[in-house]
Amino acid sequence: MELLKKRIREEGIVLNNRVLKVDGFLNHQIDPQLFKAIGKEIADRYRDAGVQRIVTIEASGIALALMAALELDVPLVFARKKKSILMVDDVYHSVVYSYTKEENYDITISKKFLPAGEKVLIIDDFLASGEAAMGLAKLVQDAGDTVVGMAIAIEKSFQPGRERLENAGYRVESLVRIKEFKDNGCVFIED
């Protein structure tokens, strides 16, 4: 997606050739027009997959997933990283490791928001090791649903996430794929 690549080139900051900081437009401050375009692109890629629900993880995935949910006219549910005292009913549970936070998270989704028998699209902002996506897939499968694919805004292709997800049988659609960080900048895999 050229628009997203352009924003990464102009505003993204690569720290120590390790982490891409996109908080000015993607995961702290949100550019609504960019997110509208991202939502449409994700929806276009999965329009024929029969998506009935979208699942993401709080917090950065929510705005991306919401825009795709609007385009596909389906509900969106997000996994919480900490169980709320208001979640008194049964939940689906998984543990994921955050590469950027360097810690494990217990993620949960209330069972009443993930009914069995649906086709579910998983959306997230980044793909690195595939931990978050695999954790979300576990929740979806525990609910008796089918994962129709994973939509990712930015993929770090030099990390094992895509391979891990594809080896598990999942369709992966990334809007931007980064081949490597070099001289504190991004080298993209071209479409």
Automatic annotation (TrEMBL):
UniProt cross-references to InterPro entries, sorted A to Z: PRTase-like, PRTase_dom, Pur/Pyrimidine_PRTase, Xanthine_PRibTrfase
Metabolic or biological pathway, per its Swiss-Prot or TrEMBL entry: Purine metabolism; XMP biosynthesis via salvage pathway; XMP from xanthine: step 1/1
Domain Phosphoribosyltransferase: 32-157
Gene Ontology cellular-component annotations: cytoplasm
Gene that produces this protein: xpt
Record: residues binding xanthine: L20, N27, K156
EC numbers, comma separated: 2.4.2.22
Subunit structure: Homodimer.
Catalytic activity, as annotated: XMP + diphosphate = xanthine + 5-phospho-alpha-D-ribose 1-diphosphate
NCBIfam families: PRK09219.1, XPRTase
Biological process terms in GO annotation: purine ribonucleoside salvage; xanthine metabolic process; XMP salvage
Keywords from the UniProt entry: Cytoplasm, Glycosyltransferase, Purine salvage, Transferase
Pfam families cross-referenced by the UniProt entry: Pribosyltran
Entry GO MF terms: xanthine phosphoribosyltransferase activity
Protein name (database record): Xanthine phosphoribosyltransferase
EC supergroup of this enzyme: transferase
Family membership: Belongs to the purine/pyrimidine phosphoribosyltransferase family. Xpt subfamily.
GTP-binding listed as a keyword: no
Amino-acid positions noted as binding 5-phospho-alpha-D-ribose 1-diphosphate in the UniProt annotation, renumbered to this chain: A128, S129, G130, E131, A132
Compartments where found: Cytoplasm
Function: Converts the preformed base xanthine, a product of nucleic acid breakdown, to xanthosine 5'-monophosphate (XMP), so it can be reused for RNA or DNA synthesis.
